[in-house]
Amino acid sequence: xxxxxxxxxxxxxxxxxxxxxxxxxxxxxxxxxxxxxxxxxxxxxxxxxxxxxxxxxxxxxxxxxxxxxxxxxxxxxxxxxxxxxxxxxxxxxxxxxxxxxxxxxxxxxxxxxxxxxxxxxxxxxxxxxxxxxxxxxxxxxxxxxxxxxxxxxxxxxxxxxxxxxxxxxxxxxxxxxxxxxxxxxxxxxxxxxxxxxxxxxxxxxxxxxxxxxxxxxxxxxxxxxxxxxxxxxxxxxxxxxxxxxxxxxxxxxxxxxxxxxxxxxxxxxxxxxxxxxxxxxxxxxxxxxxxxxxxxxxxxxxxxxxxxxxxxxxxxxxxxxxxxxxxxxxxxxxxxxxxxxxxxxxxxxxxxxxxxxxxxxxxxxxxxxxxxxxxxxxxxxxxxxxxxxxxxxxxxxxxxxxxxxxxxxxxxxxxxxxxxxxxxxxx
Length: 427
What we know:
Blueprint: H1 23-45, H2 51-57, H3 62-90, H4 93-110, H5 116-144, H6 147-178, H7 182-202, H8 216-228, H9 231-261, H10 266-290, H11 296-320, H12 324-351, H13 358-383, H14 387-409, H15 419-426
Helix pairs in contact: 1-5, 1-6, 1-7, 2-3, 3-4, 3-5, 3-13, 4-5, 4-7, 5-13, 6-10, 6-15, 9-10, 9-12, 9-13, 9-14, 10-12, 11-12, 11-14, 12-14, 12-15, 13-14
């Protein structure tokens, strides 16, 4: 195993453009990046409490309704593959504003969707638009910050990623008390419009022309081809993707498990969902402290082992019914915490290997993550929607991630250079 890592402050004479910003502008930038980072989770999670209602209203099966979640995840995956290289070639602002615009239009049309097929297509478009916000926010951080400054900013953005899933189902449940499920998309439309306006007036271009990558489509293909030749990078993004699959299995199945199987109200489900998100948030922030003592690959290895064990306990208790609701919640929340430890470190190690094409490397990483999630969501429905089906996919995702980590990445051979940059990307 690699030696313990100790972070040191950067040389004050080598401050990055972000560190040179006045404190007020830097705070506004952090808030804006937080809004951009939140758009994807809000789009995915806000309508989760409405899934059973949509199933009844549109006279569809639970598995078919879950495909609308799959469509959103597929859009997020494909959109990142496009938005990442475009932001490397054209700058950050233009692809970002165009993507948010697509999200706003799709959200407005979702309000009037006449059937499940149309809703599914529009959810794909929502995902395509939100993808630009996700990948560009990460690229902007890489443009402006490095080292410990980037570590602090990524830590704040990880809090946003954790808080958004807590708030989104709660807001969705509140909206459903006032109106029908279509009202959720009215809220998403308004949120997208507000984020677009703030971005247009508040985010400067952060990628100078001299740093943009030329070459058009052929250059993009070459960049992706080079990434695929790096076995360790490919293995690490697969680990991140399979961890995301376990998380999305929970996201897509939880409303049916807790509302239909265990009889919870929409508001009760929102509180339970929030509990899992709190564990995930706590783990991502604990990771900051753990990185002061151990390298990211060691933390990742431990998280994957603990996740597989907890997933096995979850499946056993769900299948036997031992412990009832608590028997499902406790191991499930432990799995989510382990995902919270694993997911920052796998991308950190992967992106550290290809800093020269940050947008493209981040895009491929995001595409694999959301693509794996897009497969996991309907798989839960196909297996039966209940707690056992959710547990099977959760355990399968964590087990596959662990196998890829040891058989493909081979952590004992994983290089740790330069560790400070890897830690920065993780947070």
